[in-house]
Structures are given as C-alpha cells and as structure tokens.
Amino acid sequence: MSTSRSPGPDEQYCSSCGEVIKQAAEICPECGVRLRDPPGRAASDKKLIAALLALVFGVFGIHKFYLGQRAQGGLYLLFFWTLIPALLALIDAARYLLMDDETFEERYLSG
Ligand SMILES: [Zn+2]
Description:
Blueprint: E1 11-13, E2 20-22, H1 41-57, H2 62-66, H3 70-78, H4 84-98, H5 101-109
Antiparallel strand pairs: 1-2
C-alpha cells in the first residue's frame, strides 16, 4: 500500500524516489538527490567569463572560441591587426552583459 499523497499546487514528485516534495526544492529531503541546478546559474557565469574574455582578449576572438563560435573566432584572429575585431569585441562584451541569462543560454549554450 502506498502512503504517498498527490502533490499540491506548489509540490511535485521527486524524480528519484517519487516522494511528494516542494516545487522549489533543489535537493529532495527524502533521498537527497539533486533535482536540478539553480536556474540560470551556469549561463550567468559563462556570460561573465565570455564578456571578460571579450574585453581582455577580444581582439583575438578568444570569447568566440570560448562560446564555440570557432568560425567567427577565426575571422577575429585573422583580422586582429586591423583592430576592427577589438571594436567588435567591445560590442560583443556589452551585448553579453545586457543580455539576460536565458537568452544567452539559448543563443550560445544550447546546441
Ligand atoms: Zn527523492
């Protein structure tokens, strides 16, 4: 016989042990399994790193390589002596910082 009750509006089933737990819970109090990462945390960190790389090494396109945009990074590297990539990198850095975490994640981290 099951003693579990059905989850209320702010509750959910634990994906590991099936116990009813709080929707906001990040770690199941029953089995101790981590249910999900805090939202946007990874994206937020990556965004800051990418912006920092763009500001410091942007002329070489390092931030593009960091985000997996190797073709664009290659172009920056090829034309770094024109200093145009330095300008573009400044714009990139500003765009990353102004972009919200979810958009950044969608655009650069997924797929
Ligand atoms: Zn659990």
